[in-house]
């Protein structure tokens, strides 16, 4: 086998220019597939990172959906919490909100606009201003987004007053929101959020921690039934079980399918490259009929001749595939400087590219190789 590979490399080396032009289609096709898969995998990683909850193994999320879209206060109460914690197999329950933000009206002078508001995170990078968060006990200062600063203040918002639901605050910091990032328009202190805005947010999710020995499915079913019977807002909406891990997996699968489809479309160019490989192999067989005749005369079988040209076709495509992978990796490194996320060249993409290259060489090299193998010895010798 090694001898045949070395023979194939020598044959390719004899016609460098012609074989390089033949490989060019393979190189471009593989590089395109590598880039598309890298961008798709990188985007999928970023998009699903926030959805994945690594602590969902023993957790069930019970959701309340209000019948009316205007109902923003119905959900779970303290009495509901006691009912849920009394269910067999439940360790503890935490009530949360699916949208922990308050919708508010803000005003600067005569300019009014709507905005979303939440309590300050532990650390925030500011575009203008000082500090990394609004301190928990701060009752007068806020951070706002650059978008809100442009809307309400025409950009000049720092140290200016802003009225939020009839309460006056001072803008001490402005932050930017990235392309693939979500943040509310305003951050206030934890104290102010609890005093003035928390009552506007309904607790419509119950995070149920299940004992390891209990069944998540059984606990979830019991939770829904108990809330239908004893939930204080049962008549105002419906209860259902959410599976975050399944949603995350489904979303990831959808993104992957889209990526693979686009990569497949880009890979169609490999069919054209394969036709080029077949054409050059036909030329190679025609040019080496003398060599085929001599080898057959010295005892080489039809299978030996077929394998020789088939290996040459595969080696030609593999070299093109390897160059394409290197080119794709280089292009990905460059475009990472411009993307808001990191494109990732995975081992799977490399293995798939090499497999496709081998497949192209095998499929499109077989017919010329088979023609060489079936050439009659008498005809080959007569030509000489």
TrEMBL record:
Major place of residence: membrane
Entry annotated with the keyword Transcription: no
Domain MacB-like periplasmic core as annotated: residue spans: 20-221
Membrane protein topology class: Multi-pass membrane protein
GO terms, molecular function: transmembrane transporter activity
Keyword Transmembrane helix: yes
Subcellular compartments: Cell membrane
Keyword set, alphabetical order: Cell membrane, Membrane, Transmembrane, Transmembrane helix
All copies of domain ABC3 transporter permease C-terminal, residue ranges: 264-376
This protein's name: Permease
